[in-house]
Design brief:
globular; 2 domains; 5-stranded antiparallel beta sheet; binds magnesium ion; 11 helices; binds adenosine-5'-diphosphate
């Protein structure tokens, strides 16, 4: 443990930390697990290149805290504490197991499978609640969404050799779908932005969301939903279990319908994003997953609606 840092962060955050352990690093921040009194927390030290990022995460965490105070099914991560000038964010610790680990444990266990289905129902209800609470009919979808979609389609087309074989014309297709989506003036709402099973903790019948670093206030529930669909597609679980999970999620969401173009847009957005992450870095293991995906759950859809 770095004593110097422990003292520094304690002073910056105004809490007496008793331990500090680096657990992960990414492009944007260092992530520590820390202890104080009888509590645990997560501390994110942002690199500070883009000062907007830490504020987005803090604001989204504040919103999640508010949601979980009104919702018994959620594990609260408390009011985040942000020290902007130090690029520090302190987040309440969400106990429990990553839902991804739980799902693998549940694959051959009826009782756990049924619990997993309950968790999926909670998540469906949560996405519905977020959608209802955060719609902004006067606003347009965040420009970042369109920029990222253009970027992924370009990256896919430009992958050496594979690009020409599998992704020819993707830039044009992405542009066509994006224009159609924009013209449809779909009401935007809040999304978590990295809605995958690793970022969902589960325990005692409750779920806790973590990692709001990619939250967007002007997107659409189908963004999170198709992100989750891709993540589930890529897991080694029995197909019957996967469809049960999706059905439970739908049950939780209840009878809500989204315009066809919103499905088409976000399905393609998440499909291309997933393929880009798997295929453009030339990591053998990832590439195998990418090819399996491309032939199965991440295949081009024409414009068939995939979900709900
Ligand atoms: N609030 C939290 N409660 C418990 N563990 C957390 C929390 N936030 C992050 N973690 C742990 O740190 C890991 C990385 O944090 P995360 O916010 O997901 O960053 P990344 O963007 O690198 O995935 C998580 O997978 C989880 O194990
Ligand atoms: Mg994460």
């Amino acid at each position: 443990m770095n004593q110097q840092m422990l003292l520094e962060y304690s002073a910056d955050l105004g809490i007496q930390l008793t331990s500090l352990k680096l657990i992960q690093e990414n492009k944007y921040c260092l992530i520590y697990e820390a202890e104080f009194l009888d509590n645990k927390c997560i501390i994110k030290k942002y690199r500070g290149e883009d000062p907007a990022l830490i504020k987005i995460e803090a604001q989204a965490l504040g919103f999640y805290h508010q949601l979980s105070q009104e919702n018994e099914d959620l594990i609260d991560s408390g009011a985040p504490s942000l020290v902007e000038e130090k690029n520090l964010l302190c987040i309440g610790f969400v106990e429990g197991e990553a839902f991804s680990d739980f799902l693998y444990r549940a694959r051959k266990d009826e009782e756990l499978r049924s619990k997993a289905n309950n968790y999926m129902q909670i998540l469906g209800r949560l996405i519905r609640t977020i959608y209802e609470k955060t719609q902004q009919p006067e606003q347009e979808t965040a420009p970042l969404i369109y920029e990222y979609f253009a970027y992924t389609s370009k990256r896919l087309e430009e992958i050496s050799v594979l690009g020409t074989i599998f992704f020819k014309g993707y830039r044009d297709t992405a542009k066509r779908i994006a224009d159609k989506f924009r013209n449809a003036k779909i009401t935007p709402s809040f999304v978590h932005g990295d809605f995958v099973f690793k970022n969902i903790h589960v325990r005692d019948g409750k779920v806790g969301l973590i990692d709001f670093a990619n939250a967007i206030y002007l997107s659409h529930p189908l963004n999170d939903i198709y992100n989750m669909v891709m993540a589930l597609g890529n897991m080694f679980l029995p197909e019957s279990f996967k469809s049960e999970l999706i059905n439970s999620f739908k049950k939780g969401m209840g009878p809500v319908q989204f315009p066809e173009i919103a499905h088409e847009f976000y399905y393609e957005y998440q499909r291309q994003r997933w393929l880009m992450l798997k295929l453009s870095y030339f990591e053998p293991k990832e590439m195998i997953q990418g090819f399996i995906g491309l032939a199965t759950f991440a295949k081009p859809s024409g414009n068939k609606v995939k979900f709900l």
